[in-house]
Specification:
single chain, about 400 residues, 7-stranded mixed sheet, binds pyridoxal-5'-phosphate
Length: about 400
């Protein structure tokens, strides 16, 4: 292919981005990179440049890239990739049991498998409707997904407005505000089906709910006969050091959603219902999925969980997270979050420019807002890799300032 006199490889970055623009619906804008392969925490682009992946596909690539456990599980699953839900498989049953165990859920708990986070939320919404009530309380700044039920619980007006009207009986309350939650529960009264909360709001920029707030949510929903649903699609699967972020609080929800890191990049999600009464709300025929719970996704998820345990990756998440939390710079207001779910809050509106400058310096990070840089690296990341980013931080910030014209 020849452009302006020079030869461009049809597989190089520029050519692939041109082909992307001609072939994909543009909901994601222009991709920042064309990635061709990865190893460990390093990914390589179509022009052969390496980047330290501090985003992990937004908290998805638990084991990084090309991990032997992932490769082995994928190969093993090739024998029986899919069966319909007329049948089950050892991988499906074992994964459901394992998740119930990891979530410390009581006897009589159950799992419904999906292919994504938003579908896990859809299942939770349908579960909540089986209470016979309709109103759901969700939090301001919450992100629960893009399918229309989950979108109704997602706070950002710009995401919801083009698709209105969505589910109507949704009440948003300020996050981690006990009085606002108390007031809303009282106002909704007998129609309250569920309170849905992220124990750590990820897309909003990594904001943690206090243990007291989660306990209050438990007390109010129990007293009001409503379900308490924790959305751990981003914060779950060991990323915060606990298997699920809410576990630090000792609060047991009625339902828990997970996805992202569960199978390290193979699409899967799950709704976990706690105890027989909640599990019994959904009966045969009331919900379903063609791909959800297939042996490919379940087998890989089991391998990911085994590897997190065998390699001590929850402890690594805590240790590497502390390394990030220690990042200190005059332009950093705070480093929020737990384990390897982190946000660096900048004093100035430099986050988008920081992302670009970081990429030029060989690091992949993401901005959740004008002042917030999010870091969700693979749980296998090493101390030296985190240190390389911490060391590069001041020069990346300087480059971001120059790019923003503030030099
Ligand atoms: N819930 C939370 C907390 C999330 O972070 C996300 C995705 O970012 C979702 C739900 C939606 O998940 P998915 O993109 O897999 O549909």
């Amino acid at each position: 292919m020849t452009t302006g006199g020079s030869t461009v490889s049809p597989q190089g970055t520029d050519a692939l981005l041109a082909r992307y623009a001609g072939a994909l619906i543009p909901v994601f804008g222009t991709p920042q990179l064309v990635l061709t392969h990865g190893k460990g925490c390093v990914v390589t682009d179509a022009d052969g440049r390496d980047y330290l992946d501090l985003l992990a596909g937004i908290a998805v690539n638990t084991l990084g890239h090309g991990h032997p456990a992932l490769a082995g599980a994928l190969a093993a699953a090739a024998d029986l990739v899919h069966v319909s839900n007329f049948f089950t498989t050892p991988a499906q049953v074992s994964l459901a049991e394992r998740l119930i165990d990891l979530a410390e859920a009581p006897a009589g708990s159950g799992v419904f498998f999906t292919n994504s986070g938003t579908e896990a939320i859809e299942a939770a919404v349908k579960l909540s409707r089986r209470t016979g009530r309709r109103t759901i309380i969700a939090a301001e700044r919450a992100f629960h997904g893009r399918s229309t039920g989950a979108l109704a619980l997602t706070h950002k007006e710009a995401y919801r407005e083009p698709f209105a009207p969505l589910l109507e009986r949704v009440v948003f309350v300020p996050f981690d505000d006990p009085d606002a939650l108390r007031g809303a529960v009282t106002d909704v009264g007998d129609d309250l089906a569920a309170v849905v909360l992220e124990p750590i709001q990820g897309e909003a920029g990594v904001h943690e709910a206090s243990a007291d707030y989660l306990r209050l949510a438990r007390e109010l929903t129990t007293a009001g006969g409503a379900l308490l649903v924790f959305d751990e699609i981003q914060s779950g699967m060991g990323r915060t050091g606990d298997w699920f972020a809410h576990q630090f609080s000792g609060v047991q929800p009625d339902a828990l959603t997970m996805a992202k890191g569960l199978a390290g990049g193979v699409p899967i999600g799950a709704l976990l219902t706690f105890g027989p009464a909640v599990t019994g709300l959904l009966t045969a025929g009331q919900h379903g999925s063609t791909f959800g719970g297939n042996p490919l996704a379940c087998g890989v998820a089991l391998a990911v969980i085994d590897t997190v345990e065998r390699e001590g990756l929850r402890d690594n998440a805590i240790a590497r997270g502390e390394q990030l939390a220690a990042l200190s710079h005059p332009a950093v207001v705070e480093v929020r979050g737990r384990g390897l779910l982190r946000a660096v809050e900048l004093a100035d509106e430099l986050a988008p420019a920081f992302v670009t400058a970081a990429r030029a310096a060989g690091f992949i990070v993401n901005a959740t807002g004008p002042t917030t840089v999010r870091l969700t690296p693979p749980l296998v990341i090493g101390a030296a890799e985190i240190a390389s980013f911490v060391d590069a931080f001041p020069s990346i910030l300087d480059a971001a300032r120059v790019a923003n014209g503030a030099a």
